[in-house]
Amino acid sequence: MFKLDMDAQAKINLTLDVLYRRPDGYHEVEMIMQSIALKDRLTIELMPRGFVKVCCNTPELSCDESNLVYKAAKLMIDEYNLDAGVKVTLEKNIPLAAGLAGGSADAAAVIIGMNELFDLKIPTEKLMMLGKTIGADVPFCIHGGTALAQGIGEKITPLRPVKGMGLLLIKPPYAVSTKQVYSRLDVKNIKTRPDTPAMVQKILSEDMGAVAKGLCNVLEEVTFELYPELARIKQELLEKGAMGSLMSGSGPTVYGVFETLSDAKKAAGKMPRGNRTFIVTETK
């Protein structure tokens, strides 16, 4: 096998809580993460030893050594002393800097794909530990599905899959700096926190209405203050019939949860678009 096609699934947060700032500068978090059907496509091709190249259909995305796909490929080659290089062709569908872990999902797909392409037989847990060195969301993206993430996001506990919930994602035409959001967060004075154990129970009982009502992200306090439009989008989604609505990650994407994919499509048709990106998808 000289070539492999891979999917890289985006994620949303069902909950996001920040517990405290650690001595190493990172924040200790507790969040429930969920894979969605929105995905990038990657093709990984074998190349001569020492060769690593990333090609992408999105001009705004740098394909040099700073790209997480490049870092993941180089990591696998160096870690396992692979006697070959790779070329990765990336078809981006997940919006950039959107709070949907697009870059992390792409890096995860490269790690999983190279494990398969080179027949390394590395267990998933080890791949997740490797992924953590690239980014905190990479371990979840390697695992996928529905999971509780703790630590800086690298400690993953699988949960009962939440599949088939209709989603309408709305992303305004700007990026949000995760670093800025965390730096402005006053952890000791967060007004509303998610009840993570209760949300786990709602997921276990497969009560999707209760799950939608339990959505909570403490970073909304900061990001909504910086970008008031996001609070308005959340309200619009609820007014158009969403069972619940939440910002994913540090933003700026805000999503609404609907009973079916069809309901999400109908809501999208009723909302003013302007220069915002609308994506109808579902939990996976």
Number of domains: 2
The top-level CATH class of the largest domain is Alpha Beta
> What name does the CATH topology of the largest domain carry?
Ribosomal Protein S5, domain 2
Q: How many strands appear in the DSSP assignment?
A: 11
Strand content: 25-35%
Q: Could you state the order of secondary-structure elements as H and E? A: EEEHEHHHEEEHHHEHHEEHE
Give your account of this protein's structure:
- The chain is built from ten helices and eleven strands.
- The chain has 284 residues and is α+β, with helices and mostly antiparallel strands.
- Strands 1, 2, 3, 4, 5, 6 and 8 form a seven-stranded mixed sheet that branches.
- Helix 1 links the parallel strand 3 and strand 4.
- The longest helix has 16 residues.
- The two termini are 28 Å apart.
Question: How would you briefly describe this protein structure?
Answer:
With 284 residues, this protein is α+β, with helices and mostly antiparallel strands. The protein is 33% helix and 30% strand.
